[in-house]
C-alpha cells in the first residue's frame, strides 16, 4: 500500500483536495441539505465556535511543538505532534461543517459595517485563502510521510512542503481565532 501511495502522491493530493474543497464550499454556500446531518440541541450548535477556537489554539500548540521537535531531531515526537495537529484540524473541520450545514451557511457579522468591511472581511479573506492553500500542502506532506520510510523522507519535498504548510497553518489558525473573537466575543 505504501508503494501505491508513494507512486501517486500528487494525484492523491489532487483528489483529496478537490473532494475536501467541494464539501467545504458546498456547506458554506448552503448546497448540502441540513437533513444529511443529525439534529442536535441548539446549545450544541451554539457551542461549536468556542470549541473550534479552543481546537485552533490546541492546533497552534501542536504545530509549534512539531516544528520544535523536528528542529531538534526528535522525529517520533514530531510525527505525533503533526498527527495530533491533523486530528485537531479534522475535528475542527467536522464541527465547522456540521454547524454550517445545520445553519444553512455562515452566520452574518453582527458588528458595525465599517468594521465588517475594513477589518472582519479582510481577516476572514486571508484566513480562508490560507486554509484553502494549506489543504493540498498538508495532504501532500502527510502522504509523503506515510509512504516513505523516515530514512528517505528527508530526500523528498516533505521538509520544504512541511515548513510552508506549518507556517501557513499557524497563521490560518491564528486568524481563525481573531475572526471568532470578532464574531462571537467583541460583537
From TrEMBL:
The chain crosses the membrane at residues 12-32, 44-69, 81-98, 118-143, 164-183. Keywords: Membrane, Transmembrane, Transmembrane helix. The keyword Iron-sulfur does not apply. The keyword Membrane applies. It comes from the Archaea. Pfam families: DUF420. PANTHER family: DUF420 DOMAIN-CONTAINING PROTEIN (PTHR37692:SF1), HYPOTHETICAL MEMBRANE SPANNING PROTEIN (PTHR37692). This is DUF420 domain-containing protein.
Amino acid at each position: 500500500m505504501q508503494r501505491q501511495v508513494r507512486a501517486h502522491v500528487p494525484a492523491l493530493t489532487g483528489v483529496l483536495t478537490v473532494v475536501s474543497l467541494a464539501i467545504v464550499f458546498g456547506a458554506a454556500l448552503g448546497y448540502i441539505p441540513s437533513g444529511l446531518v443529525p439534529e442536535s440541541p441548539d446549545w450544541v450548535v451554539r457551542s461549536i465556535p468556542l470549541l473550534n477556537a479552543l481546537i485552533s489554539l490546541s492546533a497552534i500548540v501542536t504545530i509549534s511543538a512539531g516544528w520544535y521537535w523536528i528542529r531538534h531531531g526528535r522525529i517520533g515526537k514530531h510525527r505525533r505532534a503533526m498527527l495530533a495537529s491533523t486530528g485537531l484540524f479534522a475535528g475542527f473541520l467536522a464541527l465547522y461543517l456540521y454547524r454550517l450545514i445545520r445553519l444553512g451557511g455562515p452566520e452574518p457579522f453582527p458588528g458595525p459595517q465599517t468594521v465588517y468591511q475594513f477589518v472582519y472581511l479582510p481577516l476572514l479573506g486571508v484566513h480562508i485563502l490560507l486554509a484553502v492553500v494549506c489543504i493540498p500542502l498538508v495532504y501532500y506532506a502527510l502522504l509523503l510521510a506515510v509512504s516513505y520510510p523516515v530514512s528517505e523522507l528527508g530526500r523528498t519535498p516533505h521538509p520544504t512542503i512541511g515548513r510552508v504548510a506549518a507556517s501557513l497553518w499557524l497563521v490560518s489558525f491564528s486568524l481563525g481565532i481573531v475572526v471568532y473573537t470578532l464574531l462571537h466575543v467583541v460583537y
